[in-house]
Fold this protein.
Amino acid sequence: MSKRIVVALLASALCSWAIAQPSIPTKPTEVARPGGKIPGAPKLALVKIADGFNDPVGVTAGNDGSGRIFVTERVGKVRIVNKDGSVQKEPFLDLTNFNPLGTDVATGFVEQGLWSIAFHPKFKENGYVFVHYSSLPFNGASLVMRFTVDKASPNIISKDQLTKSAKGIMNIPQPYYNHYGGMITFGADGLLYIGKGDGGWEGDPLNAGQNLNSLLSKILRIDVDTADDVAYRIPKTNPLAKADKTQLMSLFGITEEGFTANQIGSRPETWSYGLRNPYSFHFNQRNNDLFIADVGQNHWEEINWQPASSKGGENYGWKHNQGSHCHPATADNNCPIVGTLPVAEYPHGTPYEGGPKTVGPQGCSVQGLGVANYGGLKDTYLSGDWCSGHLFGTAWDEGAKKWNLQDFGQTKLQFTSGNLDADGNVLAVNCYCFYTDDKGPIANPKGALWRILPAEKVPKGAEVAPIRQI
């Protein structure tokens, strides 16, 4: 075989490989909707691990070799689930009783509470635990705090240890009592990512989505590896890290593109923006891609994808668009697409005000659970709907060169969040805390912790959640 033929074959192979890689949709027709099939996807089952939780709204694994799973309760407590499925009686962290005036957590509305915890990448060595919650003393503001686990008491952070080790990271005022966002997590880069909603009410009255001067409606990225008297640093690689730098003013000799780098008053913590309420988002542990489940308003839910190669700065369009649709939603859907399209979306009961009833899988609040790389699934973002109980999977189809959104069936669970366990299996938590039925995080029926497995891998005798196929 000649060298020319070998080079040609190699070039062809490389070209095919490049084409097969996931890509961001460039037009609405490329955004996946329910009805797709993920190649190799098995039938899935939700296997109960533990229950008895007060409005569980977050979960994460310690990843310290202990096998412990940490369930976040909206009321302001974090519970430990041991490797054998038993639940520790005493909370690992309790924000409801260290303040002599009462709880530190605002829970008056169902979207308020303790949302998420994240363990430092070197948690096993430094014991750092980061938490994100709505603060009652600060009138519902979002607080990001760091606490340190005492190595002599690895399963309980005492009141004294909590107050002694507390370090304030961020205090973000909240204008209304909804659309907080909530999840925090560390990326492979060792930086802390924070999801923030648009601040609430409806329709983004603050125009936070497109306002780079606000921390709301964003994914934030900060460096928390600082001295105790420094809350955090701005990573030099953040897209707006130098957008508001002090400089001499020049009117000539700079291109128009060059001038756009100046965003006076912009917040350098910003990683991406134009998000309505990114309550949950997850990195793919296999390749560091990022999936963002962005809760929609009245008509569409969306899932965004950001490749690991991204330099940040994506604008996901809110409040100009909901997914690939106009905001406000209209029958003709005639409006410009602002920024980056989602890779998948699914409808509510109607696709626009006064529109026809939706046929097929639908919902009202997308909750990201985690990226599955097991049981026939590869790079598949699992999500559950808080209202309808549908379990969805979003994945790139290498053969068809498109994104697919598969409905794995409908449960009776109100999904609230999820994450991976130490073995890479996707976990999910559910509450019974819908807006009109919410009796408060203590009075609501108890929620549970689940593990998502291929149906054929369900342990004998395990309790599973019924899933209705549609």
